[in-house]
């Protein structure tokens, strides 16, 4: 844009001062009785030249002609956009004067009559104008919107207004979240809130953000998982419990990772990981339908995904053999495969090597939703073992096009085994990378008695990516983390 932004703001200030000189508030006041633009469009008569209802709407000016005695433009609210038209011959002088103070980006209230124009466009013929907020910021170029990605992410408020599809995508996110809550309500789950500040960063293998509480003079961590407090509530008698909230991990940023992200964790007493598979299918297929007008098949880039349940259930060991070409319990063969893939082996736990080989050979081959079940037990310190094979944990991960979407267990509720696992760090992982951080109070809670249960975590942001055909997690988070902007 060649024009000086300061000059453009000064031009807008002149119009603001003119509104003030007319005795009008350029920042707007209460505006009762308006309807959504979508409803106004529905009320418009279908025949050309036929007067419809008089309506009152409010929205932002997205386009506005600036010359002639017949002015027209478009205003939008979150439900849609409609054309407005104003004729100098048909309105009092004071209405025309207000109109001349308005421009693209301003928020405006309109009273007028609905009619279809000769070009077939639904239109409100203006009878009264109310300035609801004067915008001092120059909007982006009208045909292309915001093109610079960093500007879009930093100024999400502008991105939502002017970039095609962004507002719709974010509302689809909200519908997905609402669908989860409705499904869980139907399954008699209770939503709770648990602490964000933890004395022990447990429940997941991740590096925490550290902070300090001055009054108590103690170190604290932003939570990396929701699990351990929710299980305490199950001990206390809330048999079906969940929390959907932010968790924080002090790790990298890429197309599928943000340091703070939204996840849901839920626990069902007297269930197991198969119970969680059934529930995952209900949650995800319902969310897909809510976000995509009832459809279970969606596009993700050039790929197609079918979320129609049920989803296949494949054993970890079988997939490993199929794609890595060796038995995961043959340590020599696994080490050779790891070396071939450039995965280090020296001094590392055999099951850690197995999992690295699995990630390198299997995950990207998983396309439509598939439950990968029965993981190596040593990788799952919070999971119940299979009675028929204690080396295998009753755990699944749900994969879609190589993305881990859900992680679930038959929950370990033996306090003796849990304490032993807390004391034995998983070989090959540093303390901050291990899930097995000692939590004495949690062991004490298990000694009170936690029912056998199934538990599951689902990454909401990744699910929204898949259900809205979005390839970057930053595009489905309202305000992703960015380096601080330098002003001045």
Give a structural overview.
The protein is of the alpha+beta class and 488 residues long. The chain has 14 helices and 19 strands. The chain has helices at 5-21, 37-43, 93-100, 149-154, 156-162, 166-186, 227-235, 273-291, 316-324, 331-341, 350-361, 415-423, 440-449, 460-467, and strands spanning 54-64, 70-77, 80-87, 107-116, 122-133, 190-191, 197-198, 210-213, 218-222, 240-248, 260-269, 297-300, 303-306, 313-315, 370-376, 385-386, 389-400, 403-410, 453-459. The strands form four sheets. Strands 6, 10, 11, 14, 15, 16, 17, 18 and 19 form a nine-stranded mixed beta sheet that branches. Strands 1-2-3-5-4 form a five-stranded mixed β-barrel. A three-stranded antiparallel beta sheet has the order 7-9-8, with no helix packed on it. The longest helix has 21 residues, at 166-186. The chain starts with a helix and ends in a 21-residue tail after the last helix. The mean pLDDT is 92.
């Amino acid at each position: 844009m060649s024009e000086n932004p300061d000059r453009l703001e000064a031009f807008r200030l002149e119009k603001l001062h003119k509104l003030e000189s007319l005795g009008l508030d350029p920042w707007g006041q209460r505006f009762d009785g308006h309807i959504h633009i979508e409803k106004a469009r529905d009320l418009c008569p279908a025949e050309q030249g036929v007067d419809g209802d008089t309506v009152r709407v409010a929205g932002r000016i997205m386009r506005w002609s600036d010359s002639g005695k017949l002015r027209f433009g478009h205003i939008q609210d979150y439900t849609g956009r409609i054309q407005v038209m104003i004729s100098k011959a048909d309105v009092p002088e004071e209405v025309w004067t207000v109109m001349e103070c308005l421009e693209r980006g301003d928020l405006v209230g309109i009273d007028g009559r609905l009619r279809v124009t000769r070009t077939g466009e639904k239109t409100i013929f203006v009878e009264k104008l109310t300035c609801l907020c004067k915008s001092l910021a120059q909007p982006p170029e009208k045909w292309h919107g915001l093109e610079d990605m960093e500007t879009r992410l930093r100024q999400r408020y502008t991105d939502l207004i002017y970039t095609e599809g962004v507002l719709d995508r974010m509302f689809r996110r909200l519908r997905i979240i609402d669908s989860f809550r409705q499904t869980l309500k139907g399954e008699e789950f209770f939503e709770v809130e648990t602490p964000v500040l933890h004395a022990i960063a447990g429940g997941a293998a991740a590096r925490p953000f550290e902070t300090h509480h001055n009054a108590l003079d103690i170190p604290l961590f932003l939570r990396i998982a929701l699990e351990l407090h929710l299980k305490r509530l199950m001990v206390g008698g809330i048999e079906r419990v969940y929390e959907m909230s932010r968790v924080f991990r002090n790790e990298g940023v890429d197309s599928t990772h943000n340091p703070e992200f939204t996840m849901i964790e839920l626990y069902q007493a007297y269930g197991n990981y198969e119970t969680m598979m059934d529930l995952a299918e209900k949650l995800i297929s319902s969310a897909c339908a809510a976000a995509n007008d009832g459809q279970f098949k969606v596009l993700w880039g050039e790929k197609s995904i079918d979320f129609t349940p049920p989803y296949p259930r494949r054993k970890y060991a079988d997939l490993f053999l199929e794609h890595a070409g060796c038995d995961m319990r043959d340590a020599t063969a696994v080490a050779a495969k790891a070396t071939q893939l450039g995965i280090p082996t020296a001094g590392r736990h055999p099951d850690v090597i197995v999992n690295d080989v699995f990630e390198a050979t299997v995950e990207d081959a998983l396309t439509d939703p598939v439950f990968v079940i029965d993981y190596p037990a040593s990788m799952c310190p919070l999971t119940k073992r299979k009675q028929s094979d204690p080396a295998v944990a009753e755990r699944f991960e749900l994969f879609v096009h190589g993305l881990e979407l859900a992680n679930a267990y038959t929950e370990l509720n033996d306090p003796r085994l849990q304490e032993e696992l807390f004391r034995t760090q998983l070989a090959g992982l540093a303390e901050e990378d291990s899930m097995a951080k000692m939590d004495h109070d949690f062991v004490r809670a298990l000694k009170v008695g936690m029912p056998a249960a199934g538990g599951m975590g689902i990454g909401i942001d990744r699910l929204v990516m898949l259900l809205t055909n979005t390839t970057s997690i930053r595009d489905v988070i309202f305000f992703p983390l960015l380096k601080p902007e330098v002003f001045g």
